[in-house]
Amino acid sequence: MSELFNTGITITFIGMAVVLAFLTLMIFVMNITSSLIVNVLNKYFPEAVKEEPKKAKKKVVSNNEDIAVAVALAFNAQQGGK
Questions:
Q1: How far apart are CA 79 and CA 60, in angstroms?
Q2: Which band of pLDDT confidence, cut at 50, 70 and 90, is reported for residue 58?
Q3: Per residue in 61-77, is it b (16+ CB within 10 Å) or e — as a string?
Q4: How far apart are CA 19 and CA 11, in angstroms?
Q5: Which among 36, 18, 75, 47 has a CA at the least distance from the CA of 10?
Q6: What would the DSSP string read from start to end of 1-12?
Q7: What is the mean pLDDT of residues 10-31?
Q8: In the prediction, which pLDDT does 12 show?
Q9: Domains of the chain: which residue ranges?
Q10: What does each C-alpha distance from 28 to 17, 33, 50 come to in angstroms?
Q11: Which of 18, 26, 32, 57 is 20 to 30 A (C-alpha) from 2?
């Protein structure tokens, strides 16, 4: 009975190792194949590049005097008009 159990465990581990090795090899082969196919397809059938329309820049107007007056009024209102 013990001999059959040991043989079963051995066959199980050998089978699991073979499956693991095959899956690992398959992943590497698939990655290499997909990168080669993508490179070949991009060489003969390149994707069109979409160009976004350029937006006109807004002109920045300096309102330093208006900002200074607003800050002074806010400070004066906060101090209670002192």
A1: 32
A2: confident
A3: eeeeeeeeeeeeeeeee
A4: 12
A5: 18
A6: -HHHHHHHHHHH
A7: 98
A8: 98
A9: 2-79
A10: 17, 9, 33
A11: 18
